Amino acid sequence: MRTHLKHRPSSKPGNRQTADMPPPWNYKSAKHNSERDKSVQRVAPCLSLACLIWLAGTASVVAIDEFEDVKTISKLPLSLREIEAEFSRSRRDACEIIPAGESLEITSFTKILTERDRRESQSKRLMPSSRRDLFSVGLEMDRTDRESLPTVSRGTIIEYLEQNYVSIQARVRRDLLDQKLYFHHRPLAMTAKFRGSRLTQGFESIVAQSIRDFHGLGLFMHEGDSRKKPESFRTLVLLFRTEILPPGKTRPRDVYEFAFVRGEEIAGGLELEPHVFVTSQDRTRLEYLRSNRRPSNPAKCSVLGNITVTDYDSSGLYPKKSATRSYRLDQRQAFAMEELDAYCRSRLLRGGLAENLTEVLDAIIAGEISVSAK
Question: 277 with 236: CB under 8 angstroms?
Answer without folding.
Answer: no
